[in-house]
Amino acid sequence: MPLIVDDKEIKKASKVDEFVTLFPHFKKSSDELIKQSVEVVGPEQLLYIGQRELAGTSPDDDVISILGSEDATTCHIMVLRHTGSGAAAMVHYDGSSVAEGLQNMISIVEDLTEDMQAGRLEVHLVGGFVDERKNSHEVSDKVIEALCESSYRLHLVTACITHFNTEYRNSVPFPIIYGVAFDVKAGRLFRAKFPDKGPDMALRGARHCTGSKENLNIYNPQTHRLEIGPFHYDRLPNVDLFLSLPESHIRKYLSTSPEQEPDTFCESVRAGLIQLRDFPNPLQTVFNGGKPKVYAKDKRSGLWQLQPVG
């Protein structure tokens, strides 16, 4: 089925360079989002979604009401919402398994919606910038293609991507928005940053350091549990050499956009590399009995607490 933009059917995917020319009204809505102040979102009611992760829930969830993600430079963050049920899902794309990730989000929303005909599926896209290597262009192109080729009618409401999310500092391009949150109960998208990203971020980051392509679903909206894994990651040759590198080299060799990465980038990469080094064969060393690590959110503190393996 075609993608719907401004009530018009888009049956053929266009590259992002053409897309921004065909649909200039997204510049206005992007500017409105950009003008927002950045809200600091605490852990209460928050489900943080990292790179190559996705998750979703509904307004009936009394544990999670905010989906959030950040640290997107060339990456794109997508929100999919059903206007009838209010069920919503979010993914943090880096260009891997885009169509599969979209279908998984649709399945999450479908499972949480009694009557799909009593509303429509709306999409919000944020991320990327006009980087010199055009990595953002590649991600934008893949996302637009997946939306156009979906078997569902998808209404693109927000597209603050690549060209519309770029500012220049001393002639160097930077993304303007690095992170967003979505209030599932209010149906509101807003700029955000997240001091607490939840548990096992080194483990979660290690997964895509060695090439795992799948965008994993990390939340069960029926049990209200955060579920990490089980998954495998490969050994990384010369990991100690990478760990010995100065920050400038880590940015140069392990980032798609070295100059534009947030201040926490090198720290996060080092944590992932240490995870790879110290816990090889995670199906044996991390996931007890091949089972996921399961967390329940403490409603008072908002922090995730590890649950015993059943």
Automatic annotation (TrEMBL):
Transmembrane annotation, as ranges: none
One Pfam family in the UniProt entry: N_Asn_amidohyd
GO cellular component terms given for this protein: nucleus
A single BP term in Gene Ontology: ubiquitin-dependent protein catabolic process
GO molecular function: protein-N-terminal asparagine amidohydrolase activity
InterPro entries, sorted: NTAN1
Entry protein name: Protein N-terminal asparagine amidohydrolase
